[in-house]
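Notes, p. 3: input format for complexes.
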Amino acid sequence: MMVASEAAQLLQWTESHMPLMRDIAREFEETQPFRGIRIGVSLHLEVKTAVLLLALRRGGADVVAAGNYGTSQDDIVALLRENGVDARGSGSESREKHLATVRSVVESMPDVLLDNGADLLKLAIDLGVSVLGATEETTSGHMRLTTELASLVHVPVIVINDSPLKAIVENKHAVGQSVYESFCRLTNLMPQSRSMLVVGYGWCGRGIAYYAKANGAHVCVAEVDEIKAMEAAVDGFRVGSVEEMISGVDVVITATGSQNVVGETAIARMRDGVLLANAGHFDWEIDLAAIDAVTLERTPLGHTIERHVLEDGRTVDVIARGRMMNLAGPQPKGNSIESMDLGFAMQALSLERIVRAHDNLPLGAQPVPDDINRELARRFVEAVHSSVGTDDGSRGLPDRQE
Ligand code: NAI
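Output follows (402 residues plus NAI):
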């Protein structure tokens, strides 16, 4: 755990690179959209989330927050409490205690919810707690809202994950960057000149392939959707099936969301010494049961890599047993500050929209309103232009006196 001053310094560093949230916090302070409103929150409690929750607080909200199971950073929870957020729970609590913490957020009778996986909304429905509406961070929450909870949700729920802004900036660029960073951090190897197979050319796969190629890896792509496979081909990647290409690569990274995309046939064809990793949400993309079935010996090599010696003498190295590689190992950074700035700016403005206009919004799951997407896209471009040089070599800042 960090000492309190370190947590405050980290917050300061993070805030200084979240220009959208900085502006929104300033606007909220003036307009007080959440005065008299309690916001119940379920979100990974780390420093970037702290910036969001403190902005809601500045907008007048009473914020009651629980983290995700096992991931709350206790120093950040303490920092939030010092700054008036009712942050509950800790990273070391048991699953039962964590569920009780989440339940206590709903029992605090929030007016709106900032939800994650629809956990709060499901509890609110079960406990008969009525809310004006909610925002939902994840795809899995969206799935629940449109299936098991569809007939039970009678309030607007804005799903942040469906925004095209998030797909471009977070799934493509932030995941691409963090998977590249994680490959280097976890293996301490050079990606340059290594041959790499990226499985899936959706938003995450595009980013992973792009960052790996830009850093000198020889990348090929396996994609089942013909149109995305064509896109990969015209983006300059060799395209084929996993089974066709796996024998020629040193590294395989999966990013599909599907099960067993590296299956038995592919495993039989892998070259000796191949490294397997996954960036998809579930740890089921590499068929580890099939690898285990032909493994003679499994040896941990450092924190996150395990070497399998197979019956036929080949070795296979697997990162983090196929869990998300960019959240594995010591000091995973998660997605870049700027991408979370954008994602949380969508959260903040969507919550404001729920509070101000819940009566005029459709009921149930819905995308981020188009005007919010466009406003934030415009602000993001402005922020990028103000921090990078322009083509003529000058800073993209307004004229300044030297
Ligand atoms: P997406 O839907 O844009 O792309 C997935 C792609 O995989 C699709 O093009 C699909 O056709 C392809 N695919 C599915 N099965 C395949 C197979 N057997 N072989 C080859 N291609 C196959 O989804 P997105 O946004 O790229 O997300 C992919 C996964 O990454 C999801 O599980 C998502 O939850 C996860 N994710 C991980 C993050 C991280 O930080 N590691 C962040 C965001 C998403």
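Residues 139, 171, 175, 199-205, 222-225, 228, 255-258, 261, 279-281, 324, 326 surround NAI (CB under 6 Å).
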